[in-house]
Amino acid sequence: MSQKVLLNAKEVNIILHRLACQLIENHNDFTNTVLIGIQPRGKYLADRLAKMLKDDYKIKNIQLGHLDITFFRDDFRRGDKPLEANTTEIDFIIENKNVVFIDDVLYTGRSIRAALTAIQSFGRPSEIELLTLIDRRFSRHLPIQPDYRGRQVDAINNEKVKVNWIENEGEDTVYLINNE
Amino acid sequence: MSELSVNHLLGIKYLNKQDIQLIFETTDHFKEVINRSIKKVPSLRDITIANLFFENSTRTKLSFELAEKRLSADVINFSASQSSVKKGETLIDTVNNILSMKVDMVVIRHPNAGAGVFLSKHIKASIINAGDGTHEHPTQALLDTYSIRERLGEVKGKNVVIVGDILHSRVALSNIFALQLQGADVMVCGPKTLIPKYIEKLGVKVETNLRKALNWCDVANMLRVQNERMDISYFPSTREYTQQFGVNKALLESLDKEIVIMHPGPINRGVEITSDVADSNQAIILNQVENGVAIRMAVIYLLASKIKQ
């Protein structure tokens, strides 16, 4: 197994600021917008972006939620490992809101497909956008593309992109891990 | 995440501590799901479940059916009173006929103890025991202890008394196993005739004085007197039973502390519990019913995830 650094802490920070600014460009003061981190790994990115928008860009009314997609996945009973559920916290109405899905890595697009179904349980959003830190090109199984992307990466199938966060792993770094 | 150590839920005695922990954590997630505006998830859309009720049930049957439907499973229902069982068909034949319609999971309630265990040895499907005679009723014990955990924070270290007809109660036996597995101290209380001999061997305390029992406990689980299972008279009169083993408001108020009152239903109001107690804030009877759906969703989900394609 070998790994190389795709993005270091400084690069991650610059990209997060750019993504925050792009969000502000489209959503102004976020009065009609909600941010939804896709569990489990999108949570960290969503929390970080929400904090950045509040602290650095002085946006007061950020509505942030976390959506667990376990029960909506299409690979139930198909893998070797059981699917692990996480917490869903959406303490606001999403009816007629602009929803921004936030996830760390966009790979096959199947998680986002599940999230699109899962979010319907909470109402009918006016529109849904997708923000991802890493977009793995040429690996999609479904016609799903991000609206905001941090970095586009070409990775082959036996490679894995791993995003580490200070809150969880003690560092902000993106790795490309080769399992061979 | 780990998975359940069993392929069937036949009784609490076949589970370990980690299984219960996993079921409770999964239940937390499903409880959030059933409080959404759309309460359904698509996980089990390719699973078919048969509910085989060889004995009457309202609450458990509705609860299972709702849990199955909220998981998007296909459901078929069967009750013995309207079936060929009356025409002399054996249990295995009945179930095999149903299974040949490609059923993946069977929820069974049966008047004979061990019906679920027996079936699990003879048929290819996941079995959930929804009550077998006076033996076990595992999902009830899971939802009872889950409700205690929800109200009091944890089950460990709590004193729980089960009051009433212990002899005929599958709820009592499953509760004793589930409570002990989670580190609670268990006492049974009732007329001597309704307490099984040698029950102390299970490590439970026995008390025939209700006031003493209530003073000792944090939670009292009030059971119904199961007249339908009684072949002889176990106490002189219902009135005398109520006087000695019924809980009323005055009795609760005379205790040193506020205890939690539970009841698995159906309630005989005015017999084991008075209306003012059943409807008070001390009672978590309706929480038990709500948690029942989430618990059953979790059990079905976790067992279904072990059925390979």
Word description of this protein:
The complex is a heterodimer of chains A (180) and B (309). With 180 residues, chain A is α/β, with parallel strands linked by helices. Chain A has helices spanning 9-27, 42-55, 110-119, 166-169, and strands at residues 2-7, 33-38, 63-67, 98-106, 127-136, 148-153, 159-164, 173-178. Chain A has a single domain (10-72, 85-156), classed as Rossmann fold (3-Layer(aba) Sandwich), CATH 3.40.50. In chain A, the strands form 2 sheets. Chain A has a 5-stranded parallel β-sheet with strand order 3-2-4-5-6. A 3-stranded antiparallel β-sheet of chain A has the order 1-8-7. In chain A, helix 1 (9-27) packs across helix 2 (42-55). The radius of gyration of chain A is 16 Å and the shape is globular. The termini of chain A are close together. In chain A, 38% of the residues are buried. Chain B is built from 11 helices and 9 strands.
